[in-house]
Amino acid sequence: MLQTLAVGSVLWAAPGWADSDDIVKVRATGDVATTMSALEAAVEGAGATVFARVDHGAGAEGAGLELGPSQLLIFGNPKLGTPAMQANPLAGLFLPLKVLVYEDAGGQVWLAYEAPEETLDDLDGVDDDADYVARMTGALRKLTQAAAGG
């Protein structure tokens, strides 16, 4: 119990960040559309390529279903992704990188992504300590922080 309280206190003391297993969540201050636009601008400003912006909420609405605001940005940089695919071509199943921006049931907006070392963990030849994994991790952290607005 005490250990659980200590972990909870650490997570509470780190505003804006939550980590649930392999998923990293960053609290955003804006709405989904504004946060997604800020993320897209940060990605492009960093020299990466935006491949797609998927509006899950609009897709659900088009199918006559309800879903809170939720958008996915798919983006990449060959300088980061190619070394992973050279180590194991199956890394291409998990790349390019993806960040989800969504509103939870309480109205809080989050940016969420899977930690690259977890995404690529089961692939032979891809080392968790590889430079490209660290660079992907750093890029995701910087980009989501920039888009979070807080």
What would you say about this model in short?
This protein has helices spanning 2-13, 32-45, 56-62, 78-87, 116-119, 131-148; strands at 17-20, 23-27, 49-55, 70-76, 97-103, 109-114. The chain has 150 residues and is α+β, with helices and mostly antiparallel strands.
Question: Can you walk through the features of this model?
Answer:
The chain is of the alpha+beta class. It has one domain: TATA-Binding Protein (2-Layer Sandwich), CATH 3.30.310.70. 43% of the residues lie in helices and 24% in strands. It contains 6 helices and 6 strands; from the N terminus they run αββαβαβαββαα. It has a 6-stranded antiparallel β-sheet with strand order 1-2-6-5-4-3. α2 packs across α6. The longest helix has 18 residues. The two termini are 32 Å apart. The N terminus is likely disordered. InterPro entries: DUF302, TT1751-like_sf. Pfam families: DUF302. This is Camphor resistance protein CrcB.
Topology of this protein?
Blueprint: H1 2-13, E1 17-20, E2 23-27, H2 32-45, E3 49-55, H3 56-62, E4 70-76, H4 78-87, E5 97-103, E6 109-114, H5 116-119, H6 131-148
Antiparallel strand pairs: 1-2, 2-6, 3-4, 4-5, 5-6
